[in-house]
Amino acid sequence: MKIKDRIFKSILMGIGLISILFIFLPILRLITYSNPSLIIDAIKDQSTINAIMNSIAFSLLTAVFAVIFGTPLAYLMAKKSFGRFEGIVEAVSDIPLAVPHTVAGIALLLIYGRDGTIGSLFYKTLGIKFTGTSIVIIIAMLFVSFPFFIDAAREGFKNVDKALENASRSLGASIFSTFFLINLPLSTQSILTGFLSTWARAISEFGAVVILAYYPMTAPVKIYDAFTQYNLSVSIAIAATLLMFSLAIFIALKILTRERNGNANR
User: What distance in Å separates the CA atoms of residue 130 and residue 143, rounded to the nearest whole number?
Assistant: First the structure.
């Protein structure tokens, strides 16, 4: 390898290391800074465990809903099914990425609040209130994390070999059969990636959730509540507890996904 190439590679490695440390150091500091006794107290505190379990359950449900509702949209976008409106659809699907999450919460409140467009209809006709419920928490999580799934799944569908689709259709298969036998299996990895990205983003959501539902309390809201009512040490202990739970689940899902892909490639 030439000297210039070695220098260039060393520069890239140095920048890459700085990037990794930029992500890793705050996480490591959070865990090591936390008082072990406070972490134990946080784990023993039922309200903290309930908040963490709420975050995990609601975010996983959010990711499931993202797969159910996002897969058809991602497929249509990948196949350019919207014609001249393709750019508009893509822009709209990515809007949540550019909207501050407190703004997203207020916007959702105008739709699902008791006096909102949809919320008032349900409240007046059925007596059902969305705000302050687990339903609206999932809605808020889905709104802010939906683009992560759509973008990942869309790329998966785009990368499906067109020749395989054409062969399927030429052999008499319908669009329905081609979708389930060709497109969906070959896009599984991207869909799983989108699922994990959506789950990871949803579990950390605070801004939109706190406007729509302080209770049932999720972990980020619990951390904020502890910070305002107690002190930084208590909120750090709860944050470290949530981080350990989240990392354990995230790593487990990553391992399962990798094993599944390994078995599929054999």
Answer: 15
* CATH class of residue range 37-265: mainly alpha
pTM to 2 decimals? 0.86
The pair of structure tokens assigned to 169 is 């259709």
User: How far is 116 from 103, CA to CA, in rounded Å?
Assistant: 15
Average pLDDT, the chain: 89
Instruction: Give the burial string for 32-66 (b: 16+ CB within 10 Å, else e).
Output: eebeeebbeebbebeebbebbebbbebbbbbbebb
Phi-psi region at 258: left, alpha or beta (left = phi > 0; alpha = psi -120 to 50): alpha
Residue 141: partners with Cβ closer than 8 Å, 6 or more residues away: 58, 59, 62, 202, 205, 208, 209
The domain ranges of the chain are 1-33, 37-265
Q: What tens digit of pLDDT does each residue of 191-202 get?
A: 998 998 899 899
